Amino acid sequence: MRTLIDIISEELKQAFTACGYAEKYGQAAVSNRPDLCQYQCNGAMAAAKEYKKAPIMIAQEVVAALDKKKFSEVTAIAPGFINIKVCPYYLTLYLEDMAKAEKYGYEEQGRGEKIIVDYGGPNVAKPLHIGHLRSAVIGESIKRICRFAGNEVIGDVHLGDWGLQMGLIIEELKERKPELCYFNESFTGEYPAEAPFTISELEEIYPCASGKSKVDEEFKERAHTATAKLQEGYAPYIALWKHILRVSVEDLKRNYENLDVSFDLWLGESDAQPYIPAMIDDMVEKGYARESMGALVVDIAEETDTKELPPCIVRKSDGAALYETTDLATIIQREKDYGPDRYIYVVDKRQELHFVQVFRAAKKCGLVSADKELTFLGFGTVNGKDGKPFKTRDGGVMRLENLISGVNEEVFNKVMSGREMPEDEARAIAKTVGLAALKYADLSNQIAKDYIFDIDRFTSFEGNTGPYILYTMVRIKSILTKYAEMAGAADGVIAHPYSGESETREYGAAETDLMLTAAKFNDVVAKTYEEMAPHKLCQYIYEMANAFNSFYHNNKIMGEEDRKKQSEWIALITLVLKLLETCIDLLGFEAPERM
């Protein structure tokens, strides 16, 4: 289904060509002066240069040639603007088609591509903290948006599960529990099925071991040795590593579930390790890699670069692999197992250089084709009111589960304020609204920008917040419930054909504004997908919520005596609710039945 702006542009193009001008000048745009008109066309001014004619004369000719059926007002304004207002009756017909169409008329742009979205990136044995918030929230939304666009999307958490952190944990555990069978070289039985630690113990062991390695060189060296033995396949340490992985992943899944974030793949750096030796050999054999100060590097600089880019190190001088090595090997694995058409990495923007090196090395070494789309979506940081990365009151890093709990508690207090409600129901509502508050606060910002974490503002039921959006949706649900009880359930499809009264009846400004806003849905989703910009969806639903509330306050929907007009209003707000529900699902949250 064509977007409304495309339909208006098509009418303009026909009028321009009918007047002897190129159709390229007939492009409509949303008006930057909504007090004057809804859409505008500036093509006459551009055409004036080519046709050596006053722009106002061209604009007047085009206006005269336009088929006015779809427009209530079209005027030529000096020096050459064409101001357009869409006929409200035509809007109702357009919205009726939207209500009937699959995905409300949105035409899938994805062409059925297979896309891997790499987001999350937690390390095992460590709790999720506020630094993991944006990757999870943005990545989940990007995954949903890409699927809605008609693609096959695979979300991969890409665990950090292979490296020195494993050796540190093993060595610390050995000091604490030397009697464990994993440290008995003469042990020949089966290793226990249960882990010798809980997630709480594991989360305490790692920071202790990490701190110790910074002051105790001997301990650090033993940890390096343990890491090497693990990576060489030493059976006792492999068994311990599997325990670490299982206990950690169970906890990670629980925490991600609280964010309504899910992954199709729970693969990690360890899964890419088997591909590294052959990859390195191939790079050397084909001359892609060279030795530099004992390390093996791939030059990735290009003539068009405006600044110097260091080579990508694929093997350290001591023979160890790095993150670059693992990320390149992961690409080989993904190409072999899934053959995606495109990759999207949702990672902290401070990692941009790393991914420039990895992407260029992958293409230079033939790991992917030269035209493979590798996208880096770098996000900004979550900061405190002091403008620095958000910390707890004691200066520590905020655990994600504590952050979520704090937001939920704030919403719970607001839900309970001044109203009677069972506590268990209020807690359930607070969990739903709290998640919306957290996700909307994040996604309403442009991905690359930092933002200030302000729990009071995020959880407000007024202003540009998640709770305000949900409160608007709950208000619509309440109206529809009352109407259904009074007159039977609305089917969400605007009645058609209209009687003459409907075509000529007066449409209020608030009603027209709400219809126009609803009609933008296809265009907004298309731009959101094209630009990978969830904040555009947030802007749209905030605009929609404001438009609905203005309509609600200017019209007594349930008190309207004209039953036909009332049914049309009900059909309109039913569609508005469905559009809002679709948008918030793409953002990764949902609305409760009441608040």
Description:
Among the domains are: 4-86, Arginyl tRNA synthetase N-terminal domain (Gyrase A, domain 2); 164-258, no CATH class; 387-595, Isoleucyl-tRNA Synthetase, Domain 1, CATH 1.10.730. Helices cover 52% and strands 10% of the residues. The protein is built from 22 helices and 13 strands. The chain has a four-stranded antiparallel beta sheet. It has a four-stranded parallel beta sheet with strand order 6-5-10-11, sandwiched between helices. Strand 5 (114-118), helix 5 and strand 6 (152-156) form a beta-alpha-beta unit. The chain is globular.
Strand content: 5-15%
Strands, count: 13
Strand order of the largest sheet: 1-2-4-3
Number of H- or I-type helical stretches: 22
Mean pLDDT: 93
User: Class by helix and strand content?
Assistant: alpha/beta
Instruction: Give the oligomeric state.
Output: single chain
Largest sheet: 4 strands, antiparallel
How far the N terminus sits from the C terminus, by CA atoms, comes to 35 Å
What's the architecture of the domain at 387-595 in CATH terms? Orthogonal Bundle
Helix content bin? 40-55%
Summarize the structure.
With 595 residues, the protein is an alpha/beta fold. The chain has helices at 4-18, 43-51, 55-65, 88-100, 133-148, 164-176, 199-213, 217-231, 235-258, 269-272, 276-285, 323-337, 352-364, 400-416, 423-443, 455-458, 466-487, 500-504, 509-519, 521-531, 534-554, 563-587, and strands spanning 29-30, 39-41, 71-77, 81-86, 114-118, 152-156, 289-292, 295-298, 312-315, 342-348, 373-379, 382-383, 451-452. Strands 1-2-4-3 form a four-stranded antiparallel sheet. Strands 6-5-10-11 form a four-stranded parallel sheet, with helices on both faces.
